[in-house]
Amino acid sequence: MSKPFKLNSAFKPSGDQPDAIRRLEEGLEDGLAHQTLLGVTGSGKTFTIANVIADLQRPTMVLAPNKTLAAQLYGEMKEFSRKTRWSISSPTMTTISRKRMCQVRIRLSKKTLR
């Protein structure tokens, strides 16, 4: 049996993060197939997603568009939950093994980064 995803952070969600967490969780519970979390670099998107994973305790697959971001996400998520078993299934995919799977995509566009 897998250990639960327990968020290990000295920080609490702040600013727009609590609303984003709530809305993402509601979307997942409502069965939305796709959701987009937009934010500039350093705005806490990964931390926001880690909070959603911790709150819902559902199997999660984190996708990244390239090897560099996959490695970065792997490192950050591993820091957020050191007791959770993480693995990189391919050069651009990080997964947590569990019974049921939910997927959250983080999309960045040039427009968001300006």
UniProtKB/TrEMBL annotation:
Q: Per its record, what are the GO molecular function terms?
A: ATP binding; ATP hydrolysis activity; DNA binding
One GO term (biological process): nucleotide-excision repair
Tell me where in this chain the Helicase/UvrB N-terminal domain is found: 13-85
GO CC terms, sorted: excinuclease repair complex
The family database entries (InterPro entries) matched by this protein are listed as:
Helicase/UvrB_N, P-loop_NTPase, UvrB
What's the short name of a Pfam family annotated to this entry? Answer: ResIII
What is the protein named? Excinuclease ABC subunit B
